[in-house]
Design goal:
Bound molecules: zinc ion
Strand order of the largest sheet of chain A: 1-12-2-8-11-10-9
Structural class of chain A: alpha+beta
Largest sheet of chain B: 4 strands, antiparallel
Order of helices and strands of chain A: EEEHEEEHEEHEEEHE
Helix content of chain B: under 10%
Radius of gyration of chain A: 17 Å
Largest interface: A-B, 23 and 25 residues
Number of strands of chain B: 6
CATH topology of chain B: Folate-binding fold
Radius of gyration of chain B: 15 Å
CATH architecture of the largest domain in chain A: 2-Layer Sandwich
Helix content of chain A: 10-25%
Structural class of chain B: mainly beta
Number of helices of chain B: 1
Number of domains of chain B: 1
CATH superfamily of the largest domain in chain A: Probable tRNA modification gtpase trme, domain 1
Oligomer: heterodimer
Number of helices of chain A: 4
Strand order of the largest sheet of chain B: 3-4-5-6
C-alpha cells in the first residue's frame, strides 16, 4: 500500500500547549485508521446490513438512531437512517464486505482516503466540543459507542463517543487541517497535549 | 428555532435547509395539464399559521423531513421523514420529542 500522508502534518505539533501549567485537560491526536467505510442499506434492509457488519467485523450494532459500538481497533455507528460508518485500524476492510453486503442489501463506499479522524480525550473533552457543536455531549444523552452527525461552520462532522471522556471526530480530509487548528485553539484555555 | 429530526433529535435550524412548500403536488412528469404545472410552480397558500414544509437535515443525517411550522411563531408542531414511515422513524433518540 502507498504511504498515506496526513493533511494535519504542517500543523501537527506533538507536546503540551496552551494553558497547561495547571495540568493537561485534553489530549488531541490523529487516529489514522486504515479503513473508513460508509455503508448504506436500501429501505427495509437495515437489519440485514447490521448483521452483515457483524459478520464482517464482529461488531454488534445496538438498535436505535445513532447507536454504535467500539472494540478499540474497530468501530461502527449509525449516522443517518439506514447508514453506518465502519472504521478499522487496519487497511483493507472494504474487501471483508465484498460478498457480505450484496447489491440487494445496500452499498459500501470506501472513504479511507477521504476522511481524517481526530481524537479528543480527557476531562474537558465535552467542554471543548460543546464550543463547536450545538448537541448534548453529556454521557446519558450521548452514550459510549454512539454516533452523531453535525456541522461546525459548514464542516460536516461525524462524532463517535469511544470512551467516557473520549470522542473520535471524522471530517472531510480537505477541511481537516482547518478544523484541527480550530480544535487546538479551542483547547488552549484548558491546556492540551498533542500525541 | 429548533427542529426535531426524527433521527438526530432536536437540532438548531442552522443544520437544516428549507426545501420548499410541502403542500405542492407535482404532476406526473409526462403530464401536459398546464393548470396543474402552473399550480405546482406558482400557487402557494402563504398561511399565517401552521404550514406544511419540506426541510432537509443537510448538516446532520441529510434526511428530508416533513415539518409543520407556524409562520407566526416559528413553533414546530410536528416533524417526520418525508419519505414516509421509514423503520428508523419509530426509533427516536431518548432526548427527541416526537
Ligand atoms: Zn437528522
Amino acid at each position: 500500500m502507498v504511504e498515506r500522508q496526513s493533511p494535519l502534518e504542517p500543523e501537527y505539533y506533538p507536546g503540551s500547549h496552551g494553558n497547561f501549567e495547571h495540568g493537561v485537560d485534553v489530549i488531541l491526536s490523529e487516529t489514522r485508521p486504515g479503513s473508513i467505510l460508509q455503508l448504506a442499506a436500501w429501505p427495509g434492509e437495515e437489519k440485514r446490513l447490521m448483521s452483515a457488519i457483524y459478520k464482517a467485523t464482529g461488531l454488534a450494532l445496538p438498535d436505535g438512531a445513532g447507536g454504535g459500538v467500539t472494540d478499540g481497533a474497530r468501530s461502527a455507528f449509525g449516522f443517518a437512517p439506514g447508514k453506518f460508518t465502519v472504521v478499522d485500524e487496519a487497511e483493507g476492510l472494504a474487501a471483508a464486505f465484498s460478498g457480505v453486503v450484496t447489491p440487494a442489501i445496500g452499498t459500501v463506499t470506501d472513504l479511507s482516503h477521504g476522511r481524517t479522524a481526530m481524537r479528543i480525550a480527557g476531562p474537558k473533552a465535552e467542554w471543548v466540543l460543546a464550543k463547536f457543536f450545538a448537541i448534548d455531549f453529556a454521557l446519558p444523552a450521548f452514550p459510549i459507542g454512539a454516533g452523531r452527525s453535525t456541522t461546525h461552520h459548514d464542516v460536516f462532522a461525524q462524532i463517535q463517543r469511544t470512551g467516557a471522556d473520549q470522542f473520535d471526530i471524522y471530517v472531510f480530509r480537505s477541511f481537516a487541517r482547518s478544523f484541527w487548528k480550530a480544535l487546538c485553539h479551542a483547547s488552549e484555555e484548558v491546556g492540551y497535549e498533542v500525541q | 428555532m429548533l427542529i426535531t429530526c426524527p433521527y438526530c433529535g432536536p437540532r438548531d435550524v442552522i443544520e437544516f435547509t428549507y426545501q420548499g412548500d410541502g403542500n405542492r403536488q407535482r404532476p406526473q412528469p409526462s403530464s401536459q395539464d398546464l393548470d396543474a404545472w402552473n399550480a405546482y410552480v406558482y400557487d402557494r397558500l402563504n398561511p399565517a399559521g401552521d404550514h406544511n414544509e419540506i426541510w432537509q437535515h443537510s448538516g446532520g443525517c441529510r434526511a428530508h423531513l416533513r415539518v409543520v411550522r407556524n409562520t407566526l411563531t416559528h413553533e414546530i408542531s410536528s416533524s417526520g421523514f418525508a419519505r414516509g414511515d421509514h423503520k428508523a422513524a419509530a426509533r427516536h433518540k431518548s432526548e427527541a420529542k416526537s
